[in-house]
Automatic annotation (TrEMBL), chains A, B, C, D:
Keywords: Hydrolase. It comes from Colocasia esculenta. NCBIfam families: unchar_dom_1 (TIGR00369). GO terms for molecular function: fatty acyl-CoA hydrolase activity. Belongs to the thioesterase PaaI family. InterPro entries: ACOT13 (IPR039298), HotDog_dom_sf (IPR029069), PAAI_dom (IPR003736), Thioestr_dom (IPR006683). Residues 64-138 form the Thioesterase domain. This is Thioesterase domain-containing protein.
């Protein structure tokens, strides 16, 4: 996938209009849209993607800061796009994910997400992802995502 | 929180009706609803929660199986409820999460999620969470979630 | 490797005599010996190994309890042997390791280490490893180890 | 601990002479010595330590490259020293460790290890540790280590 296509796949994730009126009727592949709608790409080069978004209310937890599961989903989705930016034919399937949560971030704060491919082998790739507060650079979370890239083969 | 209250907090997560017509207008604290709507508790005892759900289309990835970020969100949310079932005054804030993805699960397959508290100290707790196919017992994912439980104090 | 050979590879890890008089002259492949000398296999079946050892003074940290690095090394070594017990042609190369430390264990306390293969595919395998106090069953640490098993191929 | 004391604690880890002739008789707290003997500090500042060493034969695995358990031990030990360099009163006790193994490194190759504190709160700290080949900068492993720093309190 060329860099423009990777950019488009993230930025044009979804129409903002909800396609149905019930949770049960939400269609397949809606998940990425739900997580990243509103994101913009600030920088993209082979193996490295930097993007930013304002934390939307829908991604908050009961403490009113960014949900740990939403953070994990961002690590997954933006990390996967970094493999595509590196020229991998697919973004692979998830094998491992790990995240350290370092600080809370609240609704409408602007965050920056940087994904950097550490390794992209024929079979396995690893990407490091960091979430930071855009204004201060303070780290919100740091994680790594390991993917199996030879998806036609068997794990 | 007593066991019935923990059960209710998971099962009665949401009305199925979407409260708005745009993603941007979805309200705060909608995230848990989005992930766990449809879940039912099969067993609950202090420190251990087992629940099940049919994989809904909204939680699929582009490969049409359960999204890695949705799995991580389930580990987060069901793991947190296990701390409440153990009598912790709060479910704390996330410090670390890690997940190994072992198998794919598709729309409408029934999964079982078991969360078991490994440690619930005054400051820090750790819970192990496993997702299995309900019919076969085959493991889909295994993770651990570490939380800071003394939330009034400073990390 | 048959089960007796896996057993022997762990139990007969080393003569107890140090082969040289300086750290610098210690030979290649001494590491496993250093970690597991004294271990005994309590149970072995395909994909599952349970062994026990008394915590030797050489594996303590400055707080006089089992060193986090020694625990990680045990997760690595005993986890790897579980792949061999499962009939994998090699124990592969390490891709990921993660450990939650849950309790301290002191010199001469007896510990039990259980390694259980969660998945052993053609390319990738995952094993869960738990360290417990043998007398009480209290969990000391829980980890997972992911290995690339198709070692002749390229990662 | 001041920076010079942190430096000394790593570089002067041990006499090279083995203090006994059997593994069983090796004394308590020998572990750090075994792992880091030969290391030198290239740079130290509050919250950040960079050191280097030639991979000694004693830390190899059966494939003749740096043992995964030795890598984990280096992440543990050098990571802990970074908390001391940041002015933490103790280096705390281990809560979590995770490592991605990215490349093999062989005997006598020179490696560089960088530990960088991501967070050092009153209760909990997180440090990122990276191992690289010194000549090429190629990443060998990347990990994080989470420690409980309020060690007089109860976890």
């Amino acid at each position: 996938m060329d860099l423009q296509a990777v950019r488009d796949s993230l930025e044009k994730a979804a129409l903002d209009i909800l396609p149905t009126t019930t949770l049960a009727a939400l269609p397949a592949k809606f998940y990425d849209n739900f997580i990243i709608k509103g994101i913009q790409i600030d920088h993209i080069e082979p193996g490295r993607v930097i993007c930013s978004m304002r934390v939307p209310p829908r991604l908050l937890n009961n403490g009113n800061f960014l949900h740990g599961g939403a953070t994990a989903s961002l690590v997954d989705i933006i990390g996967s796009s970094a493999f595509l930016s590196a020229g991998c034919p697919t973004s692979g399937v998830s094998m491992e994910i790990n995240i350290s949560y370092l600080d809370a971030v609240y609704a409408n704060e602007e965050i920056e997400i940087e994904a950097k491919v550490l390794r992209a082998g024929k079979a396995v790739g690893v990407v490091a992802v960091e979430l930071r507060k855009k204004q201060t650079g303070k780290i919100i979370a740091q994680g790594r995502h390991t993917k199996y890239l030879a998806v036609s083969s068997k794990l």
